[in-house]
Amino acid sequence: MKLRCAIAALLLILLASLNICYAEYDLKDKIRRVYLELACAEKEGADVGEAVAKLDDALQLIIQAESVSNPVEKSKLLSRAEALINEVETSIPELIGAGRSAAQLRFVINVASIISLIVVVALVYFYGPRGLWGLWLRCRGDWRVKRVD
Questions:
Q1: Is the per-residue pLDDT at 113 higher than 60?
Q2: At 77, phi and psi to the nearest 5?
Q3: What is the pLDDT of residue 21?
């Protein structure tokens, strides 16, 4: 959770510090939109750490593209960043589905644990003394008592 918060804070700081041309601005706007979708997916229970890391990588590529003066290199960096953003954007529905199923599985496991605990307590309450005396008789049942005057 701390890693996610740190990555999110880094992403927000980097997003706030960017001022570039329209194509780069469009990619940054897309990153903001995808990041908000990831935040909603995380609320659904999805593990978005890897997706946020990819968005951070895309943002780093955009920052590198700002410092490059060669238009060909700049275009390559921006296209790689756009590919990463699109990859994250297409994976969001799958992440949401996986998060929902994981949340349902956690719920089922919690309910099953509570029910099994109740059953064990009931069994011990009803059959515990009988089992304890049965074990005592097995261990000490062959003792003979001798009368001493």
A1: yes
A2: -65, -40
A3: 47
- DSSP-based three-state secondary structure for 65: helix
3-state helix, strand, coil in the chain (%, to 5): 85, 0, 15
- For residue 71 the two structure tokens come to 């238009």
Domain layout of the chain by residue ranges: 2-103
- The confidence score (pLDDT) of residue 15 equals 54
Q: Kindly state the tokens that stand for 9.
A: 């804070």
User: Quick check: 59 and 14 in contact, CB under 8 A?
Assistant: yes
- For residue 6, the model assigns a pLDDT of 65
- More confident call, 148 vs 1: 148
Instruction: Please report how many Cα atoms fall inside a 13 Å half-sphere around the Cα of residue 61, on the Cβ side.
Output: 22
Smallest CA-to-CA distance from 44 within 108, 4, 93, 79 is with: 93
- What span, in angstroms and rounded, lies between the C-alpha atoms of 81 and 37? 18
